[in-house]
Design a protein that fits this description.
It contains 2 helices and 27 strands. The chain is mainly beta. It folds into 2 domains: 333 residues, no CATH class; 78 residues, Immunoglobulin-like. Strand 9 and strand 10 form a beta hairpin. The longest helix has 16 residues.
């Protein structure tokens, strides 16, 4: 099988489930990702339970555009191997348009120790900055061209109503059409999905019904904003939850009549924080499997732990299954100190991403000499330059592996840091 097609089988299920807007034995990171108030997620480590021991599995690192921004710049993925974290297996880079909306996702995968651009998602918006279309293209190295594997189109109606159409090249029923029913506040209460192999002959496929917690405050405008949230988290998680404080979500599939296949029940604590999600799966109207995810919070109110457990219908005890450890960092006005002067430094680095040589230029106030230092993710100093502001330095990184590096420019008590990505 072609290498590109093998990789495609790994990434497409994540992407396609993300655009399906439904759950299914998955962790609910989308409820608080990537940011909450003045907190943003910095790291997510996943574990699986094996013979009474939690074994590390994956580590997601979240990097942002600036110290005071909640806009993602890159997400890196590492795998646990031989009692240590491997080098990057995946890097997702975010590119923005002039309206500060995500214009592209670039997906880099590791092959033979180097990072290669494997897939890219392109996003288009209307004059109101509402998402119109997302196209996922995968590079076919054998044919030497980009192939459209997935397309997602949103059509807006009156008020805050909309419909969704998707196309999936790898699916027998390549075309999917979703319509929505709304309550008086504009919240989605039903999603009706139809499928077709050719966009001409359609048949019912799935119906999802949503009930909300009495304290939910979402409106139709929030639903429109949620569509953009789907774009922010695509490629990261295996599903996207509906927005708001949900109470019950039921999924039915068409088999000559609507048949219940899944039910999710959401429970909240006294502070109205999500406490658990109970998922039940049905076959022939009988529940055959269930999954429970419990949520814990740190002293700052951020969700820092999710533990999943499962059991079949004939079992009375729960079996531990998976775990997420979430790490957060404060940003924005919460860390602003009026006693500190504003940043006086700027670092310009090009090209980005770069391959072997990186040009670095600084813009500092004053004539005092400055130091430019380059570090890897382990914090190891790789090279330093000294000179005046405005001078251009050239870093020869040909001996360094692909990955993310940090440039730190220091002048007296002031400093600035910039992240750069090397590819081969």
């Amino acid at each position: 099988m072609k290498k590109s097609l093998i990789l495609l089988l790994l990434i497409l299920p994540i992407m396609l489930m993300a655009f399906g807007f439904q759950g299914g034995k998955a962790f609910n990171l989308s409820k608080n990702f990537p940011c909450s108030s003045n907190w943003r997620m910095s790291e997510d480590i996943t574990y699986y339970y094996d013979t009474d021991v939690w074994e590390p599995e994956l580590k997601f690192n979240y990097l942002y555009r600036t110290d005071n921004s909640d806009d993602l710049d890159k997400v890196t993925l590492m795998e646990w191997d031989d009692n240590a974290w491997s080098s990057y297996s995946t890097i997702i880079e975010y590119l923005y348009n002039a309206a500060n909306k995500i214009e592209q996702h670039l997906l880099y995968l590791s092959m033979d120790g180097d990072m290669y651009l494997f897939a890219k998602a392109l996003h288009e918006y209307d004059s109101q900055d509402r998402l119109l279309q997302t196209t996922m293209n995968v590079f076919d190295e054998w044919e030497g061209q980009w192939i459209t594997m997935f397309r997602y189109d949103v059509t807006y109606g009156a008020g805050t109503t909309f419909t969704v159409d998707t196309y999936n090249l790898s699916d027998v029923y390549a075309y999917n059409h979703s319509t929505f029913e709304y309550d008086s506040r504009g919240r989605i209460v039903t999603q009706n999905m139809s499928v077709s192999p050719d966009s001409l002959n359609w048949e019912p496929h799935q119906k999802i019904s949503i009930q909300y917690h009495p304290q939910d405050t979402q409106t139709g405008a929030d639903m429109i904003g949620w569509i953009y949230h789907v774009i922010q988290t695509m490629l990261l998680y295996d599903h996207i939850e509906y927005p708001g404080m949900l109470s019950v979500v039921q999924t039915e599939e068409w088999d000559g009549a609507w048949v219940l296949t899944q039910k999710l029940s959401y429970n909240y604590d006294a502070q109205l924080r999500l406490g658990s999600i109970h998922e039940e799966f049905f076959y022939d109207s009988a529940m055959y499997f269930e999954y429970l995810t419990d949520y814990s919070y740190d002293n700052n109110g951020q969700n820092n732990l999710q533990i999943g457990k499962e059991r079949s219908a004939d079992e009375t005890e729960w079996t531990l299954d998976g775990k997420h450890e979430l790490f957060w960092e404060i940003y924005g006005t919460a860390i602003d100190d009026p006693a500190l002067p504003p940043a006086q430094a700027a670092i310009h680095a090009y090209p980005t991403p770069f391959t072997d040589r990186l040009n670095i230029k600084t813009d500092f106030a004053g004539s005092v000499p400055l130091t430019v230092s380059i570090y890897n993710l382990k914090g190891q100093l790789l090279q330093s330059f000294t000179g005046n502001s405005g001078r251009e330095f050239v870093w020869d990184a040909s001996a360094q592996p692909s990955g993310i590096y940090f440039i730190r420019a220091s002048q007296g008590s002031g400093s600035s840091v910039k992240k750069v990505l090397k590819l081969k």
